[in-house]
């Protein structure tokens, strides 16, 4: 059975409509207030910019940064609003794991060498004023993190960048994910799970091990190729599934429903799972019950 690699051919010549740029809107006034064109010096021929994470470093919005994963060339772009400048960070942890590049989704076999694709900010418990940027390559089962103290400093020594990445843990077999997002109210990370047509979770208070990353939603039809995931300010989980493997490598039946946007409250989804938020009293009662047995 052939395994498709991420190579797409289109008839004719490809034409770039516009250069990649960061756009900032005032949502109250519905006005574009800033546009920054990303410099070619930080881009590569293989560049694929997949997401953006906004980091407001102080009370003044000018002290804001944006972190942009470059999945295609294994890098992270950092933009400073105050400096009106962007720089490129490279690290071997941004690369894919060759052992995790094989996929089978919707009956389609393919091989992806995708690097860092998704990231999310989680505040530091130490109250240092810095957060941690948690990130992962798509074709990987591991999660990593870096302090934003390093990322915000354009002049930080290269060796500090290499030593500043921490391995948080391992999600387990066939846990490749295109996207993650963080639910502040439950202190939980949500992952898309391509090879399992579903979504998993991880309570940040627990060690990142396979048993602490349960598959909480799965459906081979509704969630075939869960490609993106978001948690809104009201702690609702949003999931996009789009059967991308069929679209890229085989054919898509447009008489069927191929694109779905699903949503549910995170508290409802987490009930009865290893990620559910449990009070101190409940933990004590659970411990007593186990002792009684």
UniProtKB/TrEMBL annotation:
Keyword Secreted: yes
UniProt keyword list: Secreted, Signal
Signal peptide: none
Subcellular location as annotated: Secreted
Chief location category: secreted
Domain of life from the UniProt record: Eukaryota
Gene Ontology CC entries for this record: extracellular region
Database matches in InterPro entries: 6-blade_b-propeller_TolB-like (IPR011042), MRJP/yellow-related (IPR017996)
Protein family per UniProt: Belongs to the major royal jelly protein family.
Protein name as it appears in the record: Yellow-c
């Amino acid at each position: 059975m052939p395994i498709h690699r991420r190579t797409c051919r289109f008839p004719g010549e490809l034409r770039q409509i516009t250069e990649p740029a960061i756009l900032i809107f005032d949502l109250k006034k519905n006005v574009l207030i800033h546009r920054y064109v990303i410099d070619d010096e930080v881009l590569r021929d293989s560049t694929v910019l997949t997401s953006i994470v906004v980091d407001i470093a102080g009370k003044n919005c000018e002290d804001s940064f944006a972190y942009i994963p470059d999945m295609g060339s294994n890098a992270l772009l950092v933009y400073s609003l105050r400096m009106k400048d962007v720089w490129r960070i490279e690290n071997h942890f941004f690369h894919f794991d060759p052992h995790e590049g094989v996929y089978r989704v919707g009956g389609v076999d393919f091989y992806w060498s995708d690097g860092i694709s998704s990231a999310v900010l989680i505040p530091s418990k130490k109250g240092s004023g810095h957060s941690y940027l948690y990130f992962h390559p798509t074709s990987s089962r591991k999660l990593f993190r870096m302090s934003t103290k390093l990322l915000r400093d354009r002049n930080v020594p290269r060796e500090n960048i290499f030593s500043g990445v921490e391995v948080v843990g391992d999600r387990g077999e066939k846990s490749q994910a295109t996207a993650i997002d963080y639910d502040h109210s439950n202190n939980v990370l949500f992952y898309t799970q391509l090879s399992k047509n579903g979504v998993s979770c991880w309570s940040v208070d627990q060690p990142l091990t396979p048993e602490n990353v349960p598959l909480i939603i799965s459906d081979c039809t509704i969630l075939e190729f869960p490609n993106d995931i978001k948690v809104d300010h009201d702690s609702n989980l949003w999931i996009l599934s789009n059967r991308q493997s069929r679209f890229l490598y085989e054919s898509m039946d447009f008489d069927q429903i191929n694109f779905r946007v699903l949503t549910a409250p995170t508290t409802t989804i987490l009930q009865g799972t290893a990620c559910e938020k449990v009070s101190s009293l409940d933990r004590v009662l659970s411990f007593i019950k186990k002792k009684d047995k």
